[in-house]
Design goal:
- There is one protein chain.
- This protein is an alpha/beta fold.
- It has a single domain, classed as Vaccinia Virus protein VP39 (Rossmann fold, 3-Layer(aba) Sandwich).
- Helix content is 35%, strand content 21%.
- β6, α7 and β7 form a beta-alpha-beta unit.
- The longest helix has 16 residues.
- 45% of the residues are buried.
């Protein structure tokens, strides 16, 4: 499958999703339960953008993988607890930046939402402002970053090195899937304490785009990256159940936890 074919299929997917309905809701109020341990629920307002579709025609809308990652962050006790005080970086945030917004709500010290598309970043900034997250206590900002070939200048421009990386539904085009592990390695090594840095990502291992080829390419690239180790697991039923958005299908979503191999951390 070529990159152009992947982009064409992604475009067909977004067209089918939108069903050419210009009256589709543009703003959503999402309520996330805090889980069985009685943690406080989180409410986020997210404005989607039919005119800010971003790279591959998908960046303007909430996809299930983004929703599931945000819900997992909110409901998983260990994940929720470890967000407090972290410097967080979301890759490929799109227009909604939902995981970044959730990280800020759950106590991250700072959050940077990144994307390659300038229009997506403008829309993400609107969602940050909509949720009043542009200032203290958690300052959420946006920055341009190409996950396929990030320049040294763009990485340096991210500011404070992050020790927690997030991404959702980035793995749907072969070139992104192949390049992402190297980018993760570079960003994890940049953390103040690389051995404690981690990346949490939600990958929709769907068959609708490329027969799942991009997800396989991503796993192969992870396996080939000697500096990284990763865990791939199914999301808990309570995360997949009763979605606040979409048709409820999980798209074969899997949770990835990526770290630096301990012996490769200098």
């Amino acid at each position: 499958m070529t990159d152009s074919e992947g982009e064409e299929e992604a475009g067909e997917l977004i067209a089918a999703f939108l069903d050419e309905d210009e009256s589709a809701p543009r703003e959503r109020l999402l309520e996330f339960g805090g889980g069985a341990d009685g943690a406080a629920p989180v409410t986020l307002r997210v404005r989607e953008s039919s005119t800010t579709l971003g790279f591959g025609g998908t960046g303007g809308w909430i996809w299930n993988s983004s929703l599931f990652l945000a819900r997992w962050l909110c409901r998983d006790r260990a994940a929720r607890g470890s967000l407090c005080g972290r410097a967080v970086l979301e890759l490929g945030c799109g227009a909604t930046a939902l995981p970044a917004l959730m990280a800020a709500r759950l106590g991250a010290q700072s959050v940077v939402a990144t994307d390659i598309c300038p229009d997506s970043l403008k829309a993400a900034q609107l969602n940050i402002d909509l949720n009043q997250l542009a200032g203290a206590p958690a300052c959420v900002t946006v920055a341009a970053l190409d996950v396929v070939s990030p320049s040294a200048e763009s990485v340096a421009g991210l500011g404070q090195p992050a020790d927690l990386l997030l991404f959702a539904d980035l793995v749907y085009l072969p070139d992104v899937a192949a390049a992402l592990p190297e980018t993760l390695r570079r960003l994890l090594l940049r953390a103040p304490k690389p051995a404690e840095a981690v990346c949490w990502g939600c990958v929709a291992e769907r068959t609708a785009v490329g027969g799942g080829a991009a997800a396989r390419i991503f796993r192969q690239a992870l396996d080939s990256e000697e500096a990284l180790v990763y865990e791939r697991s199914e999301l808990p039923p309570e995360v997949l159940a009763d979605p606040a958005y979409g048709d409820g299908e999980c798209d074969g979503c899997r949770l990835y936890k990526v770290r630096l191999r301990s012996e490769r951390v200098d």
